[in-house]
Every structure is written in C-alpha cells, then in structure tokens.
Amino acid sequence: MKELTHYIGGEHVKGTSGRFSDVFNPATGEVQSRCPLASSEEMSRAVEIAAAAQPAWAATNPQRRARVMMEFVRLLNRDMDKLAMALSAEHGKTFPDAKGDVQRGLEVVEYCIGAPQMLKGEFTDGAGPGIDMYSMKQPLGVTAGITPFNFPAMIPMWMFAPALACGNAFILKPSERDPSVPLMLAELMEEAGLPKGLLQVVNGDKEAVDAIIDHPVIQSIGFVGSTPIAEYIYGRGCANGKRVQCFGGAKNHMIIMPDADMDQAADALVGAGYGAAGERCMAISVAVPVGDETADRLIEKLVPRIEKLKVGPYTAGDDVDYGPVVTAEAKKKILGLVQSGIDQGAELVVDGRDFSLQGYEDGFFVGPHLFDKVTPDMDIYTQEIFGPVLSTVRAASYEEALKLAMDHEYGNGTAIFTRDGDAARDFASRINIGMVGINVPIPVPLAYHTFGGWKKSMFGDLNQHGPDAFKFYTRTKTVTSRWPSGIKDGGEFNFKPME
Predict the structure, then answer these.
(1) What are the pLDDT digits (tens) for 311-357?
(2) For the domain that residue 61 is a member of, what is the CATH number?
(3) Has the keyword NAD been applied to this entry (predicted)?
(4) Do residue 89 and residue 193 come from a single domain?
C-alpha cells in the first residue's frame, strides 16, 4: 500500500502521528494509498520552517517573485496531462474535466505574474508644507489555506499563488480524499525557483485544521468547503485575531423565462447540473422555469439529453460525460436525499438509483436524476446535494422565481436564460447573489475578476483571486514624511552633517 507524505521544508516527510486516512480510487472503490493525518506538533514544525523562510522572500522584489510564477506556468503546461491523470485517479472526474481543474488554477497564477503592478502603493507629493504621504502594501507573513476535495488543483492555486506573489509563506492543508496533486504542485513551485520552506503541504483532518486556526504565527486563513465548517473556521479564526475568508455551500438556481431558447437552456442545465457528477459549488442544482408551459417544454427537452449521459471511469477518456462521486459516503448521502425527495412528494422524472457499470460494480457511481414539481420545503431543495441531481421548481411568474433564489440561505451563483434585455438587467441588479450569469449557466469569473458568493455561501470581506486576493494577502502601511528644509532665504543649501 502506497503511503503518502507531507511536504515540509522542501522535502517529502513521512507522517509521525500514526494516524492515516484511506485514499480511494472512486471508479473501483479500492483503497489505493494512505494519507497521513498530521498532529498539531507536525503543523507547528511546518509553520516554524515557513516563518524562518518568509522574511527573505518578502525582501525579494515583486518582479523576481513574478518570474517564479512565470516559470510555474510553464511547468504546469508541461505536466498538464500528468497532473490531470493523478487528479482523476483520486477524485474520479473525467480526464478533460481534470485538465480544466488545472487550467483554471493556472489562469490565476498567470494573473499573479502582474504582482509588481498590483503591489504598488500610492503617493501624495506636498500633502502639507514639506510633507509627503505614501502607502506600502506589505505581506502578512505566514498564511494558510484549507482546501476541498472537488478542485484539488484549482483552489489550492487560487490561494497559494497570490499569497506567495505578495511575499508571504503559505501552509496548505488539502483534502485528505485526494492529496496527491497538491503535493505535486508544491514540487513544481520549487522547481520553478520558489525557495524551500515557503510552500508547505501538511495533510490532515480536524486536528490539523484546529492547529492552523489556533497557531499564533499564522496570520490569515482561506477555506472552501461546507457552510457549517466555514462558519466554525471563520468564527474561531476571527476570535484568534486572524484575517479569514471562508466559502461555504451553495444551491444555485437557474431561471428559465418563457422566451428563452429552450434547446440552449436544456444544454446548459445538463452541463451545469451533471458535469463533474454535480460536485461543484457552482453547479446548477435548481431549474426554475417560469410558467407551466415553459416547465413542460423544458422537461421535454431535458429528459432525452439526461438519458443519453454517459457515466463511467476517467480511463474511458472523452467518451464519458461524468465519473463517480468521491466516496461511498458521498454516494450514500446523495441517494438518501433522492429518496427523501420521493418520500416528500417530488416527481422523479429520470431515475438513476439503479445505475450500475459492468466491471465497476464497487465504484462510487451515481446515475443522473431529474426531479419535477419540487417545492421549497423539501430536503432536496433546502440542502446542497453535491451530486448528479437536478430539481425543477415551477414558478408562476418572474417575481416568484426571483423570490425563490433571493429567499434561499445560500447565495453563491445564479443564472437567467432569456431573450429579454430588460428582464436580464433587472435580474442582475436585484438578485442578492454574488455571481450572476445571463444566458451563462456557471458564471465563474475569470482570474482578473473576483470569485465569491453572498449570504451563507461566504464569510469574510474579500473574495478569492482577482484584485481582492492582493488585498487579502497584504497589509497597507501609510507613511507621512516631513523633512526640515536645508535651504536659506538666499537659496543656498545649509545641510549640517549628522552627529
């Protein structure tokens, strides 16, 4: 059995806690490796090394730090297939989807090449008699990130790339379900020229998370995961005086207006609802057609598309639409929520409960499900399913559809499909959700904008990547400077030597 490691001080280090977590191949259900779960002492050692390495990195000028990012981008492109294959083997997502995971992280690294521009301060000449005023953006010191299983390449890079570009050290605690790619990324960063000790990968569970939250040297924490854990980390981290950004759950609605191109809307829902087996925080899990006629037309378009979806292992290549979910526990939870939908009166239009794949009977595969006539009091509507399940909630009017999305506790992403510009503008203006798509089903912003939800989908003041990342990973220091004049009335200089 392969035993994975931590990556501390530029070396692969075996775990010493004696505790491990099994890492599965989701396609076969087999345990393929063991991931060490760090103790608080192991975390403290990583922080100590990071703290020793950080001052010299902070003193390195931003342009040189940016050059490391440039080389890292080259290495990511070189090893794209290798990273994607390792990611698919542990997560289960298809190979093209895994490459997309790496690519979206790479794009944030590309943005961080602009660190010299993003880290410039402000200057006011002559703010008063002989007084100048200027600001400096300085790194926090040692920073940390706790990342989820569903994007084991992208989200770590969303965090550590801007943190390092700003001159910080970074402690990464990735998901113990698919930890291999984060370890590979740390190796590539050092191959790109990052000094040892600045990017540490410490695997673990709640003990490691609590060690990050409570360690006095760690200045900031980024987190992506479920809302209950986001609330826990945010509350405890802030109480410990840290800067914290935590991204939680989602229940993303897509409103389909009567004038929408129904083929376009159906294609968008299938891709956004079932891609990556629904294990995306930006997946569309609720379709809201306006009017029964619209709903009937939409269901008619959706059913044949969903029934044609190909579910299989990543090794099948481009011939598969989505793969297994990450663990047996995830599969059990998804099917339990499907059953609750049936019990609570929703109409199961496409039933994927009996899905089985020959030769992969022990894999964590879940067939696609489509519900109609879902109501807001049902568990499949209130809870984040994180699986290939699409719920249809019929709305009698645009205002009712808008209210559904606005009243839900989550506010990560949403979309509207319409040909009406007035409806689209009104929707974008009024909706209380952080990321909005207009005829775009998964409105994930590009790297030079920021990513972040509202309500119980996000805790903190600053979003991920884009300009907010450089604000999150720096402190602003403002200097007011006054120099006594050395000029006599006659215009001659009269500087006295310093004693």
Answers:
(1) 999 998 788 999 999 999 999 999 999 999 999 999 999 999 999 99
(2) 3.40.605.10
(3) yes
(4) yes
